[in-house]
Amino acid sequence: MRILYCAIDQHVPGTKGGSVHVEEVARGLAALGHEVHVLTGAGDGPFPPGPVEWHRLAPPFGRRQLRLLRSADVYVAAVRVRPDAVIERYYNFGGEGIRAARHVGARAVLEVNAPVIDYPRSPKRLLDRVLLVEPMRRWREWQCRAADLIVTPSAAILPAWLEREKIVEIEWGADTDRFRPGATGRVPFTRAPGDVIALFAGAFRPWHGADKLVEAIARLRARGEAHVKAVLVGDGPELRRVRAAAEGLEGVQFTGAIAHDQMPACLAAADIGVAPFDPSAHAPLALGFYWSPLKVFEYMAAGLPVAAPAIDRLDRIVRDGREGILYDGREPAGLADALLRLSDPALRATLGAAGRARAVAEFSWVAHCRKLDEAIRQVASSQ
Asked: CB burial class (10 A; 0-12, 13-18, 19+) of residue 9?
C-alpha cells in the first residue's frame, strides 16, 4: 500500500520521543513493503536514508496550534501521492491529514498519544463552556468519527462512545537491534571501577521526575552509600532546577541532549534505567498513565533493569521483581531503596536479561509496526 504519514509538528531527525516515533514507524512500515511518504519538519540534520520518502512540511511559524492552516498543502501532497491510507498524529488543532484522506478516498488512521477527552480542570474545557458551542470538543470528536482506525496506547483517553472495533491499542517500542547490551560508541559520561550507574533519559518536564533521581542520590549519600551514581541525559524546562538541586552532590553527571543514535551506547554503559514519573505534576495524567514510555522500552532493550513507580499501566510494562523494581512513589525513600536493591549485580543481570527478552518479544518497533500493518490492512479490506 501507499501510505502518507502526516506528522508536520514533529522534526526528523530529532531527540524527542515524537520524532523517534515518526522515524521508526515510517521505517518499520517501509520494511514491511509499503511505499511510505512522510510530511514532517526538518530536524538538525538530513532526513534519514532508506526507502522512506521524506517531505519537508512544518506548521506556520513553527506553531503546532496553526497546523490546520497547512490543510491545502497536505491535500496537494495527498493528490500527488494518491495514498491508500493516511496516518495523522492527533492534535486538538489538527485534522489536516484526516481531511485529506476523505478528499482522496484513502483510509484515515488517527494516531492518538494524548487525551482526546477532557481531564479535570482542563483549560480547553473551561474555554468550551465559555464559548457555549464547545468548538474544541466538537472538532476533536469529529476527527475521531472521521477516522477509519484509531491507534493508541490506551483506549481510556478516547471518548467512551467510540466503536471499540475501530480502536487498536499498541505500545510504542524500541529498536532492539540497535538498543542492546554491549552496544558500542561514544559514551558521554565517566565511571570509575565499582560505580553503579543509574541513568535517566528524558525531556526534563516536571512529570518526568528527574529531580526524584537527584533526591534519591542525596538520600543514599546521607546513608553513606557512595557507589550508586546518577547520569541524567537530555534537556528541557526543568533542567536548570534539577542542576541546582544537584549542586555540590558528588556522583551526579548531566550530559545535555544527545543525538538519538548515540543513545544505544549510552544505555549499554549504564547499569540501571530510571523512570521516576510523577503523575501528580501533570494534570492530564489524572485520566491515568496513558503514555507509552519510549525510555522504558529502550532501557529494557539495552538490558537494563528498570526502577519506576508502581502506577497503573506502567506496572504492566515493567513487572515488579521480573523486569525491574517498582516502588511506592508516595514514599520519599522509595526510589533510593530501589536503587540500593539494584546495586546487587546478580539481581541486575537477572532482571535486565528478562527485560531484554520481553522488549524483543513485545516492545520492539518491529512488533509495533506488524500490529499497525495488520490493523491498516484489515480496515482497508473491510471497506
From this structure: buried
